[in-house]
Known about the structure:
The complex is a heterodimer. Chain A is of the alpha+beta class. Chain A folds into two domains: 3-68, Beta Polymerase, domain 2, CATH 3.30.460.10; 76-137, SH3 type barrels (Roll), CATH 2.30.30. Chain A is built from three helices and ten strands, in the order H-H-E-E-H-E-E-E-E-E-E-E-E. In chain A, the strands form three sheets. Chain A has a five-stranded antiparallel sheet, with no helix packed on it. In chain A, strands 1-2-3 form a three-stranded mixed sheet, covered by helices on one side. In chain A, helix 2 packs antiparallel against helix 3 (40-53). The radius of gyration of chain A is 17 Å and the shape is elongated. By secondary structure, chain B is of the alpha/beta class. Chain B has two domains: 24-87, Helix Hairpins (Orthogonal Bundle); 101-158, 2-Layer Sandwich (Histidine-containing Protein, Chain: A). In chain B, helix 4 (101-111) runs antiparallel to helix 5. The model of chain B has no long low-confidence stretch (mean pLDDT 89). Classes of the chains: A alpha+beta, B alpha/beta. The A-B interface holds A 23, 25, 27-30, 32, 34, 47, 51, 55-61, 63-65, 67, 82, 93-94, 116-117, 132, 134 and B 91, 93-94, 96, 106, 109-110, 112-113, 134, 137-143, 145-146, 148, 150-154, 156, 158.
Amino acid sequence: MSLQDKYASVVSAAQSAGLSDLSVQEQDGVLYVTGKATNSAAKDSVWNALGAIDPSYTATDINVDVQVSGLQAGATLTVATDESNLNIRQEPSTDASVVGKAAKGETVTLVEQSSDDWWKIKTADGEEGYAYARYLKA
Amino acid sequence: MRKTFKIAALALMVSMTAVSCKKKVSDADLTSQATTVITSYPGTSVEVKEGQAHLSGVFATEADKQAAIAALKKVEGVKDVHDMATVAPMAAPVEVNKVDAMVLEKVNTALKDIPGVKAEDMGGMLTLTGTTTAANARKVKESVDALKIGKYDNKITVK
C-alpha cells in the first residue's frame, strides 16, 4: 500500500481544510503534506485526521507541515496553554528574559508572525514580546 | 419500361445493402470506446472525429501519455491519434533539512514543556525517546515535522 493510500484521509482533510500552497509529495519513504492554514481549526483538522490513523502521533513515514500563516497584524489570538501562563519574552528564544505573561484563555493581539514557532504579540495590558506559537490559537 | 424499373429497383437494393454492409462505427461509439481506454488517466479526455482521436488533458507522466496513445491506436476504427495532451510539470523535490545544532536547538525548545521526552542526534538521525501522553506526542510531532528533517527515529511511548 502506498503512503498516499495509507494516509488518504489526511490528504483529503488537508484538501477540505482549504489550505493554500498545499503540496502532497512522497519522497524517500516519507509522505510530505505541506500547506498554509488561515486559522488553527484548519490546521487541527489535518492533525485530527492523522490522529485517527496514528493515535500515538509517532509515525515518521508522514511529515505534516501545516502552519497557520498570513495572519494580519492586529489579529486576535487566544492563549492555549495547558494550565500555566504563557511567557512573553524579549527575544524569540526560551533563553530570553520574560517581559510579560498571559493567562490560559486570555485574548492577545498579534503584532507579527516572526517565524513559524515564535509570534510577536501584545497583551491587553500593553505587554509586548515573543510567545511560542504552539500556545496561540488563531 | 417495366424491365428498366426492375433494374433500377435492384440497383437501389444493392446500393442500400452495400451501405449497410460497410458497418461503419460512428464517431460517438468510437469516442465512448476511446474514453473507456483512458479512464485510468484522470484529467484527460478523448474525442473521435471522423475516425481521428483527439487526445487532450494533462498526464502525470510522459510514459502514461505514450501508453494512452498506444492503447487508443489499438481501438478498431480509430485511424490516428492526435496528441494535444500535456504532461504535468515535475514537482520540485521536498527540501529536507540536515539535523544540525540549530535544528536540535529548535527541537529542544519544543520539548521544554514536555517532560519525559528527550531528543538526541544519533549520527545525523534525530532520535526521540521517552514516555508521554498522546496530546504531548502530537505537539512534539507538530514541532519536529515543521523542521522537515526527513526520516527520524521516534521511539516515544504513549501512555
